[in-house]
Amino acid sequence: MTFGVAENLEKIRGRIEQACRRSGRGVREVRLVAVTKTVPPDRIAAAVEAGVEILGENYVQEAGRKRERVAGPVAWHMIGHLQSNKARAAVALFDAFETVDHERTVLALQRHALEVGKVVDILIQVNAAAEPSKSGLAPEQVLKLIHLAAGCDHLRCRGLMTMPPFFEQPEKARPFFAGLRELRDRLQPLCPGNVKLTELSMGMSGDFEAAVEEGATLVRIGTALFGPR
Ligand SMILES: *Cc1c(COP(=O)(O)O)cnc(C)c1O
Q1: Is any ligand 1 atom within 6 A of the Cβ of residue 194?
Q2: Most CB within 10 Å of its CB: which of 87, 132, 165, 168?
Q3: What is the pTM of this model?
Q4: How close is the Cα of 176 to the center of ligand 1, in Å?
């Protein structure tokens, strides 16, 4: 059952390395988030054994069922849309929240993180192509949410996340990746002193090389690692 995960990881790492080389980046600047929605715990465990250090889950309940069954030093990132009524359960399960796009969510995360004495990392999700079907803030709304998060002592705002439209040709996603980096560069000087926007979470199985070339520090990869869902 677990055949292939280690081999796939090796291949993906090689491709990330090549993309780093092409763009003059250090390979340690890029970390892989293994996206585990629908993937059973034994396959996830195999990935962790093969060296995966970050898992990305889309659903709070699914993560809850799996968390106990996946051992090892691994960070859990929430990459799905978070409903604020699930924030309490989510804070108990996750180390980082990559899809924060609402005041309500910021405040709920702060409140529950304070309750349990935990500090969680957050990324602000940007809807780079202004797609009505997608979550995320318009670029001009991001700074306001950063300021709110900066005042929350149990949150650390670490950067931005985006999910561009799906294209058959990954090159078409590139302008959205470059756009997220440019937005980060533009916003950083306007941020409160305690906020360093070091992380750019962008790129999935079909387009992660373009994302790395444009500055991704977190690539979220499911299919290329675990096979089709
Ligand atoms: C499912 C998912 C991914 C991974 O997609 P693949 O194409 O399988 O690599 C990345 N990010 C988010 C937010 C997802 O929901």
Answers
A1: no
A2: 87
A3: 0.97
A4: 16
165 C-alpha to center of ligand 1: Å?
12
Average pLDDT of the chain? 96
Spans of all domains in the chain: 5-226
CATH 3.40.50.300 assigned to domain 5-226? The reply is no
pLDDT band at 152 (very low <50, low <70, confident <90, very high): very high
- Tell whether ligand 1 has an atom less than 6 A from the beta carbon of residue 91: no
Q: Kind and range of the H or E element at 94?
A: none
Using CB atoms within 10 A of its CB, is residue 113 exposed (0-12), middle (13-18) or buried (19+)?
Answer: buried
User: 23 alpha carbon to ligand 1 midpoint, in Å?
Assistant: 23
Q: Establish whether residue 37 lines the binding site of ligand 1, counting it when its CB lies within 6 angstroms of any ligand atom.
A: yes
